[in-house]
Structures are given as structure tokens and as C-alpha cells.
Amino acid sequence: MMEITCYRDAIYAQETRTLPADVYNLALTLLHRAQPHTLFVPIRPMQYLAILDDEEWIFLDSARKCWVDIAWQNFQPQQRTSLADAVTYQAVFYQAGSAQLMNRLQHELPLALKALASKAHPAQVGKVIKLHPAP
User: Fold this and answer.
1) 94, CA 20 to 30 Å: which among 3, 64, 65, 125?
2) Domain locations in the chain?
3) Which fold has domain 13-119?
């Protein structure tokens, strides 16, 4: 079991954002396959690690190790009327330059999630059971 202690500076800024549905849905699918519901997603081109759980997604720069640069919190999937709708969330920035990272993170995270999904294998093989009507 991997354990990481993360620290946060004071909040520098925050803003409401939206995440495309396909990214949110894929992340949730991968997250709920992970046990115990914490997903570590390396974002190699940026040298970042995304840590996703049910409440927030945090982003750690390899240079700052365990200090959170950005957190995505308060996801509002219940506000959407379709699984194809974007999901609103709160982006919290802990560094002055963090806001500039957002565009790149929103581009690189989906790629990292897709790469992770392509490597993921189901833990168990499914079996179809034919159900027959009762006599």
C-alpha cells in the first residue's frame, strides 16, 4: 500500500471550472476500480503526480515532492442532466504560478488517464450465467 503525506500552503486563488464528461467519467471508473479508492496518475510530460479520491484531485510537482500545487474539489456531477454533460468543480491554487498550469493539466490529465486505462486489467474475469424461467 502506497502512502504519501501531502502539505498545502495558504490558498493563493480559486475559481470555478468545468471538466469534460469523458474525462470525469473515465477518472471515476478508474478510481472505483482502485482499492482503497485512491488513484495515483503519473503525468509524465509535466513531471506531476495526480492523486484522485472521492472528494478531491490533487496535483504534486516532482520538484516540490509532497506539496500540493493545485486541488480540484467540490465536483458537482449531480447538477448535470446527462452523463455527457461537463462537471463543475472548484480549482484551488496554492502557488502564484499554479493558474498557468491549469491549461496544461487539462490537456495532459486525460492523456494520462487513457494511458492508465489501457494498462489496467480487470482483477477478475466475468462470467455470464443464463437464467431460465422457473418451472
Assistant:
1) 3
2) 13-119
3) TATA-Binding Protein (3.30.310)
Cell of 48: 506531476
The whole model's pTM is what?
0.83
